[in-house]
Give the backbone structure.
Amino acid sequence: MAGGFVYILASRYRGTLYTGVTANLRRRVWEHRQGLGSEHVSQYAVTRLVWAEPHAAIADAIAREKTIKRWPRAWKFNVIEAQNPEWRDLWEEINA
């Protein structure tokens, strides 16, 4: 079975967050940036990729996404800032 990614998008530094899971991170983030797929993302302009975590199996990625979605915002901020303290938009990095 193919792998996947859990990812977090943000509207801005410590702004509105969206947690998702996908088998194709580039495509999915591009879709979000085009306003496709999630009304929440479109409504609140949540298009900055600030965190992503690869998984060898999509089932593991789905399980991790479900866990993260239950976390308080502060925990999500902590996981983002451990990997990306400046809250850079990682879009360019995944397209390099």
